[in-house]
Amino acid sequence: MTNQIPGGHFLMSRKVFDSAIWGKPPQYYRLLSWLIGKAVFRDGYTFKGHVLKRGELITTHGEIADALSYRLNRAIKKPSLKEIRIMLSWLQSEGMLLVKPVTGATLPNKGRPKDLTRAYIGLLIFVINYDTYQDSKSYKGRHKGRPTTEQGQLEKEGEKECIKTTRDFFSEISVLKDRYPKQETINEAFTAIQSTRKSNRIADTVKLSILKSWEGYPVESVMAGVKTYLEKGYADQGKSEKYLLGIIRNHDRDQGKEADHALRSTGSPLLDAYRRGELRLQP
Fold first, then answer.
1. How far apart are CA 102 and CA 50, in angstroms?
2. Among 80, 218, 260, 276, which one is most buried in terms of CB atoms within 10 A?
3. Does residue 280 fall inside a structural domain?
4. Are residues 104 and 173 in the same domain?
5. Nearest-5° angle of CA 176, CA 207, CA 245?
6. Do residues 112 and 65 share a domain?
7. Phi-psi region of 122 (alpha: psi -120 to 50; beta: other; left: phi over 0)
8. Whole-structure pTM value
9. What is residue 221's DSSP assignment?
10. Is 50 helix (H, G, I), strand (E, B) or coil?
11. Is 154:139 a contact under the CB 8 Å cutoff?
């Protein structure tokens, strides 16, 4: 009987040697490996009231800093908060992660029971394509008479499974794009964002992440932001989807101010009703 290794295991694809992360500083790969290893393997694990799905974890910047610290001679080297944010942002831009802050129950603020604030728990991180890369069937294969191995090339069954996952993934993108009346404009935005990359392409996981980041805003704000982004040629200046999201956010805020101003009372009930279109003034 072989010795049992405590702590379980997770899988890493050899594709990593050809990926963009292999050309980054070592801390990037250490961070990705740590996140994959810490993500929950099954749905249903509960952390501080949050039920996690397969491929998710909740952590903090401090926990990440401790995990990535190392000893150099007699000194302990630990990444700064800024360095961690930069690495997480890059991993998300490459379509490897989705990251968002999570809060818990309300807590008293400054000791005043009536003044409550949401308690910050940490970062909810989802490892994109976790199901595919952590399924041993995706790696199982037989090559030129060699015995079946967990580390061989993809067999046909595994390839079909990956294709099915990809199709489901494209379907989710399609559903999110259907929200917008002018999908050709959305496609133009993706093409413009691609031009901000050295490789002149973006992964479909990135497209999904971008579309999800737009979900929290009205369609009108998103379309107005995309139009501004394209007309001003911001992509030619190297400004990517984060800048576009800022434009969308500004449009949404401006529209909110206009709506608030439109509904603000003039002091005259008749004039207010007229402005709301509820009353026609007789000449």
1. 9
2. 218
3. yes
4. no
5. 85
6. yes
7. left
8. 0.51
9. H
10. strand
11. yes
> Is pLDDT at 225 greater than 70 in this prediction?
yes
Are residues 125 and 12 part of one domain? yes
pLDDT (average), residues 17-22: 87
**Residue 2 maps to a domain:** no
171 shares a domain with 90:
no
Report how many domains make up the chain.
3
Q: Which of 54, 76, 41 is nearest to 67 (CA)?
A: 76
Identify whether residues 234 and 153 lie together within a single domain. Answer: no
Between helix 241-263 and helix 219-231 the angle, nearest 10°, is 130
Query: Tokens representing 98?
Result: 């989705």
Is 1 part of any domain?
no
Write the Ramachandran bin of 250: left for phi over 0, alpha for psi from -120 to 50, otherwise beta. Answer: alpha
Q: Are residues 118 and 14 in the same domain?
A: yes
User: What pLDDT is stored for residue 230 in this prediction?
Assistant: 93
C-alpha distances in Å from residue 173, one per residue of 51, 89, 117, 207 = 25, 21, 35, 7
Percent of the chain with pLDDT over 70: 73
Q: Are residues 16 and 119 in the same domain?
A: yes
CA distance 87 to 29: 10
Please, what is the average pLDDT of the chain? 78
Give the CA-trace dihedral at 222, 223, 225, 230, to 10 degrees.
Answer: 140
Quote the domain boundaries for residue 148. 135-178
Fill in the DSSP letter of residue 240: -
Identity at 74, one-letter amino acid code: R
Q: What is the DSSP letter of 173?
A: H
- Give the end of a domain, one of 103, 129, 155: 129
